[in-house]
């Protein structure tokens, strides 16, 4: 009898975990699915940084995870490696929306994320494209 109660309890806990995960992905905010593109060396994206952190080098995966965790993150920069550390700058936009904000910067890396704005879908009357990663759509403003 005791083993049956334990099995029932474990099953109940697993069901609750699955429900919690599914509710996170199917709620009003959707479920972010990011495809990180190859970083562009000696470039940085300026003027739209929303958060800066200092990481242990190389830091690529950690910066990607931080970007995923911040809803407004659309791209990120990695600073040069200095004494086994580097900066991770999360940006609220990217070079597809503000191409003039992409600057040459030796030792830096600009890392875009594939998004619905990369095909430049917005008309000239509303040229600014804002991606919605959760629903794989965009808004033109």
From TrEMBL:
* Alphabetized UniProt keyword annotations: Signal
Protein name, as recorded: Apple domain-containing protein
Q: Does the keyword Secreted apply?
A: no
**Signal sequence region:** 1-27
Which InterPro entries does its entry note? Pan_app
Apple domain location, by residue?
A: 31-117
């Amino acid at each position: 009898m005791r083993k049956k109660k334990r099995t029932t309890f474990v099953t109940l806990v697993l069901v609750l975990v699955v429900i919690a995960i599914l509710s996170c992905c199917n709620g009003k905010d959707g479920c972010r699915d990011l495809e990180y593109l190859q970083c562009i060396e000696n470039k940085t994206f300026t003027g739209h940084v929303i958060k800066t952190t200092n990481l242990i080098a190389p830091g690529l995966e950690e910066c990607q995870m931080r970007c995923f965790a911040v809803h407004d993150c659309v791209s990120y920069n990695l600073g040069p490696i200095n004494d086994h550390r580097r900066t991770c700058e999360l940006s609220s936009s990217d070079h597809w929306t503000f191409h003039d904000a992409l600057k040459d910067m030796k030792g830096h890396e600009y890392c875009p994320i594939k998004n619905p704005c990369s095909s430049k879908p917005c008309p000239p009357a509303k040229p600014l494209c804002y991606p919605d990663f959760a629903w794989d759509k965009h808004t033109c403003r």
